[in-house]
Write a structure and sequence with these properties.
This protein is an alpha/beta fold. It has a single domain, classed as 3-Layer(aba) Sandwich (Rossmann fold). Helix content is 35%, strand content 16%. The chain contains seven helices and six strands, in the order βαβααβαβααββα. Strands 1, 2, 3, 4, 5 and 6 form a six-stranded parallel beta sheet that branches. Strand 3, helix 4 and strand 4 form a beta-alpha-beta unit. The relative contact order is 0.19. It binds flavin mononucleotide.
Length: 186
């Protein structure tokens, strides 16, 4: 079993519908450690040693967050800037993260049809994640296909429950090693 670390970042969880449904699903999967970054660091004072220790103790990392301006919420950017240190995460002697898997679990207000060349967002959502993918690969980690919930504003309660179940199954597959990294033949 892979040890899976879910790093959750939602700046307004009290108003959330989607992650409100996804969080219990994540917490229910055996072998998953759940860390709520906004709860741990309400003042953005991310502690690199604790975060690095958590990463070292796991085989796979899931960044769970809403899509904000085609990117991550600000605390997650702060986390990247402080935790992914040269000489630890990357660089000549920076090998701590090598071989770990990374998956983003994202909710997006826009529908899947909007995330296309002819849609109003112009690009597919996975293409907009390239800077995150490049970061993961620079650190020697394996990029997994993202888990995406589209069209959050129009998602009915039944749809939320279905997405939570799909997320639970995806995390279980990550924990049992039954998914393969993108770019690697199955
Ligand atoms: C500051 C801000 C920026 C946002 N940017 C985007 C965006 O770039 N693309 C998109 O599809 N939705 C965007 N949204 C919508 C959120 O992604 C959406 O409300 C959220 O994923 C719903 O999840 P929740 O119910 O857990 O809050 C944005 C929302 C906010 C508040």
């Amino acid at each position: 079993m892979a040890r899976v670390l879910v790093l959750f970042a939602h700046p307004a969880f009290e108003r959330s519908r989607v992650h409100r449904a996804l969080v219990p699903a994540a917490r229910s999967v055996p072998g998953v450690t759940f860390r709520d970054l906004y709860e741990l660091y309400p003042d953005y004072d991310v502690d690199p040693p604790s975060e690095q220790a958590a990463l070292e103790a796991h085989d796979a990392v899931v960044f769970q967050h809403p899509f904000y301006w085609y990117s991550v919420p600000p605390l997650l950017k702060q986390w990247q800037d402080l935790v992914l240190e040269h000489g630890w995460a990357y660089g000549h002697s920076g090998t701590a993260l090598r071989g770990k898997s990374v998956m983003h679990a994202i909710s997006a207000g826009g529908g899947e049809d909007a995330y296309a060349a002819a849609g109003y967002n112009r690009y597919a959502l996975p293409d907009l994640l390239r800077p995150l993918e490049a970061t993961v690969r620079l650190c020697g980690m394996e990029w997994r296909a993202p888990f995406i919930v589209y069209g959050t504003h129009r998602l009915p309660a039944a749809g939320l429950a279905e997405e939570a179940e799909r997320y639970r199954a995806q995390l279980e597959a990550l924990a049992t090693g039954s998914t393969t990294p993108l770019g690697v033949e199955a």
